[in-house]
Specification:
With 168 residues, the chain is of the alpha/beta class. The protein has a single domain, classed as Rossmann fold. 36% of the residues lie in helices and 17% in strands. The radius of gyration is 15 Å and the shape is globular.
Length: 168
């Protein structure tokens, strides 16, 4: 059984999309407390990926959702949700993220940090990316469902790197 990671920058739609999939999805955020030594001063979990891997070792799921999903052991393929940084900025501000955290996340999205890390972990042929900027969660979950079933091939190219020029 192939194991998949559903990952992306905060605000790209991972959790919303995963709730609509016809798969047993493990949400990593449910395990952050167990796999952490505590939180930062900003309230973020300091997740120990090694501990997280140990906790999930016996899981019978084939799909893991979360910011760190692409870093898990034994992942075969990675689905990276992407979002235009200008749209992502609005989403994160609506969530109440402070200015520093918003900038950190939209910069990471603009340079494709998680996509790049994913390629490092499993190779380019095992990573797909989907743009959630202007597509509803139902459509994204349908695409992912078809991809997981082997019914479609996804070859979307996404590059937001030029957005950085607008900010400085």
């Amino acid at each position: 059984m192939q194991k998949y990671a559903l990952t992306g920058t905060p605000g790209t739609g991972k959790t919303s999309v995963s709730k609509l999939l016809n798969e047993k999805v493990i949400s990593l955020s449910n395990y952050y407390k167990k796999a952490s030594e505590g939180k930062t001063k900003d309230g973020e979990w300091l997740v120990d990926i090694g501990k997280l891997n140990q906790i999930l070792e016996t899981s019978n799921s084939n799909l893991f959702e979360g910011n760190f999903a692409h870093k898990l052991d034994n992942i075969d393929k990675i689905i990276v949700l992407r979002c235009d940084p200008n749209i992502l900025k609005k989403r994160l501000e609506e969530r109440g993220y402070n200015k520093e955290k918003v900038m950190e996340n939209i910069e990471a999205e603009a340079i494709g940090l998680i996509f790049s890390e994913s390629i490092d972990y499993v190779g380019k042929n095992n990573v797909i990316q989907l743009d959630t900027s202007n597509t509803d969660v139902e459509s994204i979950s349908n695409i992912i469902g078809k991809y997981l079933d082997g019914k479609i091939k996804v070859e979307e190219e996404i590059d937001y790197s030029e957005r950085i020029l607008d900010w400085y």
